[in-house]
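re: that chain from earlier
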Amino acid sequence: MQEAKSQGSPITVLGKKLLEEELKHLLSVERPAVIQAIEEARAHGDLKENAEYAAAKEKQSFIAGRVAHINGMLAGAQVIDPSKLKFPHVVFGATVALEDTETGTPVSYQIVGVDEADITKNKISVNSPIARALIGKKAGDEVIVSTPKGAIHYEVCGVEYV
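^ sequence. v structure.
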């Protein structure tokens, strides 16, 4: 098996699915609603001092920008299915079990694309300092991550691709 080539922004299969769902929602729900809001605000007359109109136009602009951004990400995305990877070391898509060697606290992170990172779900960006420190490591390796609060020492306890 080969490692992922650097051809575009990497994204997991789940990340791509979530972006496609957001795009569908923006195009089928949000955009029609804002168009309706603009029409209703126009019906109130003077547009210069119409806060509803200004807010609706601003939201329309945001939606258009987000749609363009998602389309661009999907067009340039390199979709990777972590469940099909079988590496002993950490690469994009890996779920890595770690232990803070100072406190003994266990933690687990999945390395994902920039736009799918969500620390509340233990999904970290491939560009984050911890992910960069983990790439190429395997179970038993020690990793030192520089943070604003100082260096954190982790031991890699396991690497999975799910």
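The radius of gyration is 21 Å.
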